[in-house]
Amino acid sequence: MKKLKRVLSAMLVISMIAVLFIGCTKKAKPNEDTSNAADTITAMVPPISPNFQKQITDIQASFKKKYPNLTLSMEATSWEDLSQKLDVQVNAGTPPDIAFMGQVNGAIAKYLSTGMMLDISKSVPKEFLDDFDSNTLAYLKNGNGMYGLPLYMAIQTIGGNKKFLEDAGIDWKNIQKNGWTFDEFREMVKKGVVKSGDKTSRYGFVFACNGVTAKDLLVMLAMNAGMPADFDKDLKFAYTDPNFLKVLEFVRALIDDGSMPKNSNTINAGARWNMMLTGQTMITGKGMPVFENSAKANNAKLDAKDSSAVKGSIKVDYVQLPMPTLKGSPEVAGGGIDGYMTFKQGKEAKEQHVQNVVKALYFLTSGDVAAKTNSDLFLAQITKSGKEAAKNTKVDIDPDNLAMTTKLTGEVFEPRPDITPELAAKSTDIMTKVMVPKFQALLAGEVTPQQMYDAVKAAAITAFGQDGIRK
After folding, report:
1. Which letter does DSSP use for residue 301 in this model?
2. CA dist 278 to 273, 275, 292, 422, Å?
3. Which residues of the chain are under the pLDDT cut of 50?
4. CB 45 within 8 A of CB 100
5. Which of 163, 254, 390, 467 would staple 260 via disulfide (CB 3.0–4.6 Å)?
6. Same domain, yes or no, for 139 and 191?
């Protein structure tokens, strides 16, 4: 009996040691290697290129093959809905891990004020960063932080119908090389107008000024009138500069001349391109290098008598052109870097999840994915791995347009990481509540250029004070 008790006692001690050992093991779990644990990374993506959203399933499969423990969940959205959807999710505290956005430098400044952006500056491996053209990374930085990775250097400008330009006696090759001023542009687009009585069948210039592109003409003209950013280098609000009034007067003059439609405030991006393909305008905006490809695709459908060609369309040879400049101001290309921004869903993000987000981020901005997207857009590769993946891809771009794209790439406005989130938030508020509504009213003839300028200046003084604006 005593022997049995001793055996039972020994077994009890062993059991207690085992329990203690197991307990210690469980407590140590947070320090275990979780790099192979299952995880899901979410991304919000618009139709970045003509074929991008069609490739989402393949992209997800390739990512899964590379990282078997990770799942890349991609929410497809439209360009029109992108900002609104992202704003709603950010404000609710549930943004995606990754979101694509045009002109990311300005977008980062905007979203930093929400406290929901994820700084990846200490989480991106050097080998990832070394793959990118070094000048492109600065657009994803603000202060000491880094909030995403770039996909391409976007070029946003205007473009014309080669035949219409030549019929009007416009030397478009000279303009590509040497540019044109506001005054020169105004006189030349008059030559593209075709009227019969009071009815205009072709305008000299049509720009999408409604919907997601409502502010683009205003901002792109301001860039070429000495205001390349919302704030100057002294961090004074730029759109109170007297040159801004000249921009407004220039736009109103184009409409009063009959070169732009009186209903320009109602023309969205889709309508603008439809008018270009149906011969209702000589020059359109905003335009991007990929528009040449889009025009060629529709031309091929017309040749093949394909019923999917744009109804009523004509053959168009698309010529890329620079924005006009206010005399004495340097030529600046709109666009900048488009890419993916990173967000967090709480105050702190788990380090392993951050590393997984970085893996997905780099996967979407390099190698085969970047090569296909950028080639689809007629844009240069900005990673070594993208260039390698695209080396056998033939891009059928007109040599003159290629030279224009190369020139404009060197003129894209510089990043402004010095603009604080607080300043950016106030500027966004003025743009949304004052500038865009007043610009719509200006286009419709409901306010004068002076009235809009005065309204913007008053709002800026309220936001920044007399010493915080350019005079």
Report:
1. H
2. 9, 5, 15, 45
3. 1-31
4. yes
5. 254
6. no
Q: Which phi and psi (to 5°) does residue 345 adopt? A: -100, 5
The pLDDT value recorded for residue 20 is 39
pLDDT of res. 362: 98
Domain that holds residue 226: 155-333+422-468
Q: How many angstroms from the chain centroid is the CA of residue 202?
A: 30
Distance CA 397, CA 290 (A): 9
Return the H-helix or E-strand segment holding 104: helix 104-112
* Total count of domains within the chain: 2
Question: Are the CB atoms for 133 and 399 separated by under 8 Å?
Answer: no
Residue 341 main-chain phi, psi, to 5 deg: -100, 155
pLDDT of residue 24: 43
The pLDDT value recorded for residue 93 is 93
The torsion region of residue 452 among left (phi > 0), alpha (psi -120 to 50) and beta comes to alpha
Q: Among the three residues 383, 409, 435, which one is the final residue of a domain in this structure?
A: 409
**Claim to verify: residue 243 and residue 297 sit in the same structural domain:** yes
Domain of 236, CATH number, reads 3.40.190.10
What CA–CA distance (Å, rounded) separates 406 from 400?
A: 10
The sign of the dihedral angle between the CA atoms of 437, 442, 447, 449 is positive
DSSP 333: B
Provide the angle, in degrees to the nearest 10, between the axes of the packed helices 216-223 and 242-256: 120
The model's pTM:
0.79
Give 402's contacts (C-beta < 8 A, 6+ positions apart).
Answer: none
User: What sign does the dihedral 433-343-113-93 (CA atoms) show?
Assistant: positive
Orientation angle between helical segments 421-430 and 104-112, nearest 10 degrees: 100
Q: Are residues 290 and 258 in the same domain?
A: yes
The label of the residue with tokens 């040497």 reads 178
